[in-house]
Specification:
This protein is an all-alpha fold. It has helices spanning about 1-15, 20-35, 45-55, 60-85, 95-105.
Length: about 110
Amino acid sequence: LTEYMEGWKNRFIPILDDPDPLRALENHLDEVIKQTTGTEACNGCYLLNAGSELSPSDDAVRELVQKAFRAHENCYEVLLQKAKEQGELPPDADPRGIASTLVGMVV
């Protein structure tokens, strides 16, 4: 589970370095759609499956899954905050709230 999370963490590093945060987020979400739909879809999310099956009875798994979802949300929030600072989102946009919603939609 830790290795799986590290793999996902490494996928976020280039996204966070992209000078166009909204484009980076859009490209990431497009990739998520490709991975979860159509003929090339994978069979679920290992993290989500492990969390739903094991976290009720395993505190360590529950903590890892929560940590992963927080990191995912934080990545989205960073991108959205950068976009807001660049004037690509309205001044009253809530990057944290939007990030939370996106993570809920992705999983």
